[in-house]
Amino acid sequence: MDKSVTLDNLKTMLQLKSNKQDGLLDLIINNTEQALRFKLGLAQKDEFPSELGFVSLEVCVRRYNRISNEGMASYSQEGQSITFNSSDFDDFESDINTWREQNGKNVKSLGKVHFINPYRGGSRAVRP
């Protein structure tokens, strides 16, 4: 699997000098890129898009910073308050959708929608 985030780049962003957390950081990188591949509609054999490497790196940093606060919507301590998005990818949804559109990976429509008018006699479907 191609990686867009390197351990060295992530450690630089997090200002980590030692190798003590390399195993954890590798796990965060792998999980983040696997999640992003899923969001992009990429198979394991597909090359990772280098133009979205910034998304992986930023999400890895966010994931690392959430350790011990998993599942929390917000965190407060001594006057400092942090609010987390429901997904670490939320701020990059527009970038992800733009890439999907440009690369033919948009989600296909699942079918037709029929609306029922409750004010009309009977239960006939109203076609849009």
UniProtKB/TrEMBL annotation:
InterPro entries registered for this protein in UniProt: Phage_gp6-like_head-tail (IPR021146)
Recorded superkingdom: Bacteria
Any Pfam family: Phage_connect_1
Name this polypeptide is given: Phage head-tail connector protein
Upper classification of the organism: Bacteria, Bacillati, Bacillota, Bacilli, Lactobacillales
